[in-house]
Write a structure and sequence with these properties.
This protein is α/β, with parallel strands linked by helices and 562 residues long. The chain contains 14 helices and 23 strands.
Length: 562
């Protein structure tokens, strides 16, 4: 989980009802039923959170004894809550993982117009291989500047138009063309980052284009993090879901260079980075062959192991082959401070609380009785290593995505106390916002404007693994405007958690926590899941959203479902 201070885009008031409701953006009408919220056990929340974050579970690192204890406990709790095994009679989905560690990095050598430049690994550039190969060796790969590296047919935008990338390395700008906008208007939603701005997309698209390598130009403001973050994140072991062919369809090397390095390379090639960057913001930009080459090499050590997603379900009565998904990650960082007096990162907030919410919500839904649609509760592994458990599920769904209506992700519930509002990460992307507005109205809560849409937080938690495959997903976080102390108190809580506990040994269970805000959020999550499960609607992404085309294509091909 990437902790952030973020609030929702303004949400217009809309009363929940059990008749067709006109969609806020003019799409097809949705039926959003009224639902009654039963008592949701805070004692269950406390007990599951306390247990999962105890030292006995060793920080819940995948592939360790802590995992074995965690998944066994979750099966026990899911069964006790009244769920059935969700994977053809099994509680588990095996998630095969591979860990690749690069070593012995040669410099990144660039040849341009007779000049040879060597750049040091770490200080100047970083790179990894997504391929399970003992050696990565790139020799004299031609450099092509491809702007933001975007191929978006629905927007009439293709930064790769007219170029064959076979054997070549793409030089790519971070974020997307609108990132400097002051408003949310533009081909790429103005200042609000789209998926096309995320580094994950840029590497995926470069691979689809057949490139040998992909290098992103780091720039702190559009990236929303400094070079140190890149340097630390892209050196050392990198974990991935195991892929058919050992990742042979990926680029040989994905990496980053400092902005100053990119400026030197382009200057030596007779170009100006600022001028090409400005040109890349305009529709119709064509890729530029830089007349330069790169070479580098490094060795890779690979380790394979298996982890588990835990899946429970409550079958529906009227339409059991239509599904509503609830997700949370069970894993954390394990023994993150070896040798210290307290070496375990217990992950009480992140994300024992979200995992406990799966159990408490399952218990409440089961006591209320089965819904029309099936309710699925998915506890995924290896979120902290790159959304790997949810990525594996998205690529290998137990319940077909075209038969899944939508879902809600829960990552690190707020223990700040009751709030007047909620934080919605990635507001106004899909018609699920209409369900959210109805639920908020029923709960007498509001949404508030998002101050950091350019940071792209929607693309950084487990719901995204489903969203990028077309499934509408909501990611709802705790509010900032606290009943006691307002926004100042909300910001103080976030700052204190981030500075003292986030991804640190300080994220431990506290018997003095105020659970009243969690109780609010659980009521909201229950309403959302139950509304979707009792509705006949198939909410879609907003027209023009980057995931709309994917969902439409999947629905067109499906024999049943959406």
């Amino acid at each position: 989980m990437i902790r952030h201070i973020l609030t929702a885009g303004a949400l217009a008031a809309l009363a929940a009802c059990n008749v067709a409701v006109e969609d806020q953006q003019g799409d097809a009408a949705l039926d959003i039923p009224e639902v009654q919220v039963p008592e949701i056990s805070i004692e269950t929340m406390k007990e599951v959170t306390r247990t999962l974050s105890s030292d006995e579970f060793e920080g819940r690192l995948p592939g360790t004894a802590g995992e074995a204890k965690t998944v066994a406990y979750l099966v026990e709790q899911f069964a006790k809550a009244g769920l059935q095994p969700g994977n053809n009679g099994s509680w588990f989905q095996e998630v095969p993982l591979v860990e690749i560690t690069g070593r012995d990095f040669a410099p990144l050598t660039v040849k341009a117009d007779g000049e040879t430049m060597d750049f040091d690994f770490g200080d100047d550039w970083v790179g990894v291989s997504y391929r399970e190969t003992p050696t990565t060796d790139i020799e004299n790969s031609e450099l092509v500047f491809v702007g933001y590296g975007i191929n978006a047919p629905e927007k009439g935008w293709n930064d790769y138009e007219g170029v064959d990338m076979t054997g070549k390395t793409a030089v790519i700008l971070i974020n997307d063309p609108d990132y400097e906008a002051e408003t949310l208007d533009g081909d790429f939603n103005g200042k609000a980052m789209t998926y096309y701005g995320r580094w994950t997309y840029k590497y995926e698209e470069a691979a689809r284009q057949g490139a040998t390598g992909a290098i992103i130009v780091h720039d702190t403001y559009p990236a929303s993090y400094g070079w140190t973050t890149v340097q630390n994140s892209w050196s050392g072991p990198q974990a991935y879901a195991q892929r058919e062919g050992g990742g042979a369809d990926q680029t040989a090397m994905n990496g980053w260079v400092q902005k100053g390095v990119a400026e030197r390379i382009l200057t030596a090639s007779g170009h100006d980075l600022a001028e090409l960057s400005a040109a890349a913001k305009r529709k119709g930009f064509k890729p530029v062959d830089l007349g330069a080459t790169i070479s580098t090499s490094f060795n890779n050590d690979s380790r394979t192991f298996s982890s588990k997603n835990v899946i429970g379900m409550l079958p529906g009565t009227a339409r059991p082959d239509e599904y509503v998904l609830h997700t949370a990650h069970w894993d954390h960082l394990g023994r993150c401070a070896p040798g210290e007096a307290d070496e375990i990162c217990n992950g009480a907030v992140d994300n024992a609380t979200g995992t406990a919410a799966l159990v408490a919500l399952a218990e409440a839904h089961a006591k209320a009785g089965a819904a029309d649609r099936s309710l699925v509760f998915l506890a995924v592994t290896a979120e902290e290593q790159g959304l790997l458990g949810s990525e594996y599920y998205g690529a290998n769904p137990v319940f077909p995505l075209e038969q899944t209506v939508g879902g809600v992700n829960m990552d690190a519930l707020s223990l700040a106390g009751p709030a007047k509002d909620v934080t919605v990460v990635g507001p106004d992307k899909s018609q699920l916002d209409d369900f959210l507005t109805a639920a908020l109205t029923a709960e007498k809560r509001t949404g508030t404007p998002n101050p950091s849409p350019e940071a792209g937080y929607y693309y950084r938690s487990d719901h995204f693994s489903m969203a990028k495959r077309g499934l509408p997903m909501l990611y709802v976080d705790g509010g900032q405007d606290l009943v006691d102390g307002g926004t100042a108190a909300g910001e103080a809580y976030e700052t204190r958690y981030r500075d003292e506990a986030y991804h640190a040994v300080g994220d431990e269970y506290d018997e003095n926590w105020d659970w009243s805000g969690v109780e609010q959020d659980l009521r909201l999550f229950y309403r959302l899941g139950r509304m979707m499960a009792m509705s006949t609607a198939w909410p879609n992404w907003r027209e023009g959203d980057e995931f709309r085309r994917i969902r439409d294509e999947a629905c067109t091909a499906a024999e049943g479902g959406c």
